[in-house]
Amino acid sequence: MNLLIVDDEIFSIQGILDSVDWTKVKFDKVLTANNFSQAMNIFLQEKIDILLCDIEMPFGNGIQLVGWVKEHDPNVECIFLTCHGEFTFATSAIKLQCFDYILKPVPTDVLEDTLLRAQKKIEQEKKNQNYLEYGKMYVNQMKENSSEEQSEDMVSRIKAYVKEHIAEALNVELLARLVNLSPDYLTKVFKKESQMTLNDYIIQQRMFLAKELLMTSNMSVNRVSDTIGYSNYSYFSKAFKKYYGISPREMQQKSKKKR
């Protein structure tokens, strides 16, 4: 993953290079430019994932640069780092779908956090894109050969996705989009291969993980609830008791007595 920093003030760029902990915020390349033209040349020669740029620059401003970048690669995450807090600049940033707009002087930890969040978003979008590509490939294969093995493979991928994203909002519609299938068709195939509905599988995996965390960790019940994707503790407690016959707190207390 590559970062391009664009600012006409050399000392501003050097300040970023010196202050950011690059062992924490890891990039394959951190490139710099001092104006619009330099930035364009670098962009045409290198694969840029995140653009961090000032607004006021000679020979073209940051708003124009981001507009040009988005035309050439809409997937680049752009962050404005500027002294300008005017509403018009913020509005332009929103229209260009910039990842963030932060004002100078910005604390190093805030900048690091912003870059890390941008990296995480890019990684998540790449994962989702991989699932979409798999879905398209799966549909094409199904047209040629609707074998039982392909259905099993698709269900295995869905199960893997559920386990990897257990703390996120999961539903049939989202998972169906990831594999490019209709919700009804995915539900039908999943139930045939797993002998349970997709929603029941999601609940099962959340309950399994909740039980494991309650019995083996020192996490609070509220934190366990958040970790497995339940933002509402009361709803989690009812779901857990329905599944296991006892409340999460009771299971945690029993587990502590056995340790």
UniProtKB/TrEMBL annotation:
GO terms for molecular function: DNA-binding transcription factor activity; sequence-specific DNA binding. The modification 4-aspartylphosphate is found at D54. Residues 2-119 form the Response regulatory domain. The keyword DNA-binding applies. GO terms for biological process: phosphorelay signal transduction system. Keywords: DNA-binding, Phosphoprotein, Transcription, Transcription regulation. Residues 156-254 form the HTH araC/xylS-type domain. It comes from the Bacteria. The keyword Phosphoprotein applies. May play the central regulatory role in sporulation. It may be an element of the effector pathway responsible for the activation of sporulation genes in response to nutritional stress. Spo0A may act in concert with spo0H (a sigma factor) to control the expression of some genes that are critical to the sporulation process. This is Stage 0 sporulation protein A homolog. It comes from Anaerobium acetethylicum. The lineage of its organism: Bacteria, Bacillati, Bacillota, Clostridia, Lachnospirales.
